[in-house]
Amino acid sequence: QGAGQGLGLAFTKVLLSHGIADRVYASFRSPIPSLELVNLANQYPERLHLISLDVTIEDSISSAVQQIERRSSQIHIMINCAGVLHGLGLKGPEKRLNDLDNQTLLAYFKTNTIGPALMLKHFTSLFPSKGRVLIGNISARVGSIGENHLGGWYGYRASKAAQNMITKTASIELSRKNADLICVGLHPGTVKTQLSAPFRTRIEPGHILSPEESATKLINLLLSLSPKDTGLFFSHDGQILSW
Q1: Which listed residue, 102, 148, 182, 241, has the most CB atoms within 10 A of its CB?
Q2: What is the pLDDT of residues 88-128, one digit of tens each?
Q3: Cα–Cα distances in angstroms (integers) from residue 60 to residues 23, 30, 107, 163, in the given order
Q4: DSSP letters along the chain, please?
Q5: Residue 58: closest CA among 138, 3, 114
Q6: Neighbours of 89 (CB within 10 A)
């Protein structure tokens, strides 16, 4: 979910090129898929299927599920990738309480929290009741309450912290239905994407990951997990992060 560009597109490439998935459903939010996503679909015509899906519209999510059901497919790996920090009419991360406004807060929660929650709600029907299932919700280290020592970024921090609670709560429910299902939060690091572009000047170049580097690390991490790890919050380097 969220494969139109950046990290989501990189996940799609890694799953296909590394032979990890026989079939990949890649969703995009814009009215038409990006040229890079179309080219990838042409490269893997039998394995990659493109689906229009907007996580801020519940009917769009349920429609995507119906499209996959018509192919009689089950989902064994799901990655919720879309997130918003700036752009789309947002002013950008708030530095002070005086910067807060209703519209911006709602926008953060709609994409970063409610979207992944509704994905889990609707896609649960596609998860097998037995056997290994991996769910990775892309979160952010700044969503950790325990690691918040700088303040600021109210809406983004809060929406990611709330997403983490959705992940933890869903991991408990879903493990009752399938003991081999693993649902975790994932911090991708600082990735060279549009989301991080205005803020990368503060970070040493060596600490910035390409989308493909981050996606590869996170896929390998997901594949290494066992059921005892469900409900945890991991960094791309394997470190367990505090909530």
Answers
A1: 182
A2: 677 779 999 999 999 999 999 999 999 999 999 999 999 99
A3: 21, 12, 17, 20
A4: ---SSHHHHHHHHHHHHTT--SSEEEEE-SSS--HHHHHHHHHSTTTEEEEE--TT-HHHHHHHHHHHHHTT---SEEEE----SSBTTB----SSGGG--HHHHHHHHIIIIIHHHHHHHHHGGGS-SSS-EEEEEE--GGG-STT--S---HHHHHHHHHHHHHHHHHHHHHHHH-TTEEEEEEE--EESSTTTGGGGGGS-GGGEEPHHHHHHHHHHHHHH--GGGTT-EEETTSPBPP-
A5: 114
A6: 8
For tokens 């679909």, name the residue. 41
CA 162/CA 113 separation, integer angstroms: 6
**pLDDT over 60 (residue 200):** no
Instruction: Tell me the pTM.
Output: 0.93
Residues 175, 230 contacting (CB under 8 angstroms): yes
Query: Which structure tokens are listed for 157?
Result: 């921090």
The whole-angstrom separation of Cα 164 and Cα 172 is 13
